[in-house]
Design brief:
By secondary structure, this protein is α+β, with helices and mostly antiparallel strands. It has 5 helices and 4 strands. A hairpin with a 5-residue loop joins strand 3 and strand 4. The protein is globular. The N and C termini lie close together (10 Å). The mean pLDDT is 96.
């Protein structure tokens, strides 16, 4: 299992603490330093069963600069999907965290203890 984290994020630190307490084997990816490519983001989205706008932190400064709330410029459908993915790859701080990719090929946005435990059970 792999977990995408920002070490400054309290939710990420909580997820790591729980993984450690459960003795889970995992690797850490500091995604702000080891930025995922657009292809990697596509794969993770498929594993999550989500769309790029579902994992975008829209309150970040970069989101406001890009005006991601403007649905005319950033449609939330197939016509805008690639632009969203490219935005996440160019601005990884926009990616919701932490994301755990489970050994069974699925993934979860692990912002709660329940979500972390769900990943552990996979």
């Amino acid at each position: 299992m792999e977990i995408w984290i920002n070490p400054a994020c309290s939710k990420c630190r909580s997820a790591l603490t729980l993984l450690d307490a459960e003795g889970a084997a995992y690797t850490v990816r500091r995604y702000l330093e080891d930025v995922p490519s657009a292809d990697e983001i596509r794969v993770v989205l498929g594993r999550l069963g989500l769309e790029p706008w579902d994992i975008t932190r829209t309150q970040e400064a970069a989101a406001k600069e890009l005006d991601l709330k403007d649905r005319a410029r950033w449609p939330r459908d197939d016509s805008g999907r690639e632009a969203w993915i490219e935005a996440l790859a160019a601005h990884p701080e926009l990616i919701q965290r932490p994301i755990i990719t489970a050994d069974d090929g699925t993934a979860v946005v692990a912002r709660t203890e329940e979500a972390v435990r769900d990943a552990l059970g996979r």
